[in-house]
Amino acid sequence: MATDISQPRTRAPRPSIGVVEWLRQNLFSNWWNSLISIVLLIIISQVLWGLFRWIIGSEGWIAVASNVRLILLGRYPSAEVWRPQLIVAMASLLLGLSGGIWRGIPLSLAAGFSGIMLLLGFVSFAMPASETPLPISTTLFLFGTAALGAAGIAAAWRLRDMLRWPVVAGWLLLYPVAILILHGSGGDTTIGTNLWGGLLLTLLLSVSGIVLSFPLGILLALGRRSKLPVIKWFCVGYIELIRGVPLVTLLFMASLMLPLFLPAEVRIDAVVRAIVAVTLFSAAYLAENVRGGLQSLPRGQTEAAQALGLNPVQITLLITLPQALRAVLPVLVGQFIALFKDTSLVVIIGLTDLLGAAQAIYTQPQWLGIPGGVWRETFFVVAGIYWVFTFTMSRTARKIESNLNVGR
Amino acid sequence: MSNQTTDDIIVCEGVNKWFGEFQALKDVSIRVKKGEVVVICGPSGSGKSTFIRTINRLEEHQEGRIFVDGIEMTNDIRNIDMIRREVGMVFQQFNLFPHLTVLQNVTLAPLWVRKKTRKESEAKAMELLNRVGIVEQALKYPGQLSGGQQQRVAIARALAMEPRIMLFDEPTSALDPEMVKEVLDVMKTLARGGITMLCVTHEMGFAREVADRVVFMDHGMIVEENTPDTFFTNPRHERTKLFLSQIL
């Protein structure tokens, strides 16, 4: 059949079929396809109905509701809850300011965070007084945090140029300041890290792990490509050794064996030991990912930079490393997501992180009367919290990726 | 330094280079005067790219001596740095930095190597981009430009260091045919402007028009060098004749 080329089409033909036609083509094209579709529909609807009834009707939610503090903070003393609250408020303000200054991704993060706080504020406000262990101040705190975020956006929207550097400084200071506030000033008001737990501990471990392993991993990657044999073989040895063992063994080494080797007076905090183990572990993987990125660059990039007279440090910092990090961004985010979830292994060395809190809750004696226990509800909520964080990370990463792809 | 007249800006004496067992350069000696435009041609694998890459130490030579603007190319990093400041280079594959805008590509070296102010380097960069005819693309990324435009940016980037010598390593070989002219035009303007140029290229029209000298290399050796007129009309060596018959 001859094609009519005298009238070019303005665009490629787009298949458009109705819902009924789509169903017929894809799910009910012949008798056994139809049979499979019907069976699957029945199973899926059963599962969904069961899930729905469980969510609405289960008595177990009370265990979660009355242990919110344990999930979020572990055994952190209730009289000192203002400390983490203060940090969250500061973070919300900084996030809001960043959103106002840089717009784009920070803005959606700030808006999302304030939105969640606002929503939680309503939830805590609406909870009947008899069931809620939450003091009224929690509601105020949640609304306040949301308001701070919004105020930050509004303020930075106008004073964009003035606030840029103070906000960067604020982010850099947030981590040490947060540790100081959480730990207290010493003496009676010191809150030992053995009391830190729940989401607080999970976030502490993963933020520390990510922030510390990032530069360490980059140094290892560069070291492995070094021309100096001592540096090169040290990095190769380190990477291959760490990658050859599971994280659990590193955690055990850090928590059980390290104290044996050190003199009795030298006691390193259990949380610090866990952070060190997680960081060392993550850095080895990060180094290999970054090295992959460096390897993928064409040699011409370095040659062009050399021909311009840039020195090796400048070539690394200005030319190769930025490109390598861009190339491996998706992999790095994947690794950080894995790290975030892997911190749950610290349960094994006796720390009560988010997962540890879940275990602590369903073994509480007061829920023995509830048929089937409360572990389903507890793990459901804890898994939900993990998911919210990892999903945010991966969405943010994807947005950053598409921003970086502009002009390529 | 051995009997170098003040006019010679590049002096190579008996340069030898091996890649493992393979000898890429055999006893290459050449003198280039200030402001001279030299075209180097020859079959692929003849060592012409390797040769011009020894002049700014992208390749290390193992025997012989190379002087650039009176500085001897040694293993001393300071000498290498000094020479690289005098020598700009344009590559076959452009080698622009894809993560930087056109303007950032051009200002990078003045900012970090010459330690000029941002204002100064940007003014100079815009002037150069104007000269190569792509000033309106200054804020785009290399990936958004055509091959010919990218190569012109690469020329501007090299010129931003205000080099006294420009090396061109097959600058038009990776271009679509319709873009070759725009790059050659920029190179011709440069050549007439008095800068010293060493061009590895197969563009014989360019050689005829602006070269002061044409050098023919084969198997790592300089087989023949002459003025373009004599080179094209009256080549002496059989290999030169064969090469010319194949490409003209």
UniProtKB/TrEMBL annotation, chain A:
Transmembrane intervals: 31-52, 82-102, 109-128, 134-156, 163-183, 195-223, 244-264, 270-287, 345-362, 374-393
Ranges for domain ABC transmembrane type-1: 199-397
The keyword Metal-binding is annotated on this UniProt entry: no
Coiled coil start-end: none
InterPro entries for this protein: AA_ABC_transptr_permease_3TM, ArtM/GltK/GlnP/TcyL/YhdX-like, MetI-like, MetI-like_sf
Subcellular location: Cell membrane
GO cellular component, one term: ATP-binding cassette (ABC) transporter complex
Membrane topology: Multi-pass membrane protein
CDD domains tied to this protein: TM_PBP2
MF GO annotations: transmembrane transporter activity
Keywords: Cell membrane, Membrane, Transmembrane, Transmembrane helix, Transport
Main location: membrane
Protein family per UniProt: Belongs to the binding-protein-dependent transport system permease family.
A biological process from GO: amino acid transport
Name of the featured protein: Amino acid ABC transporter permease
UniProtKB/TrEMBL annotation, chain B:
InterPro entries assigned: AAA+_ATPase (IPR003593), ABC_ATPase_HisP-typ (IPR030679), ABC_transporter-like_ATP-bd (IPR003439), ABC_transporter-like_CS (IPR017871), MetN_ABC_transporter-like (IPR050086), P-loop_NTPase (IPR027417)
Residue ranges of every copy of the ABC transporter domain listed in the record: 10-244
Tagged with keyword Zinc: no
Keyword Repeat: no
Gene Ontology MF terms: ABC-type amino acid transporter activity; ATP binding; ATP hydrolysis activity
One Pfam family here: ABC_tran
Keywords assigned: ATP-binding, Nucleotide-binding, Transport
Record-stated family: Belongs to the ABC transporter superfamily.
Designated name of the protein: Amino acid ABC transporter ATP-binding protein
Taxonomic classification: Bacteria, Bacillati, Chloroflexota, Chloroflexia, Chloroflexales
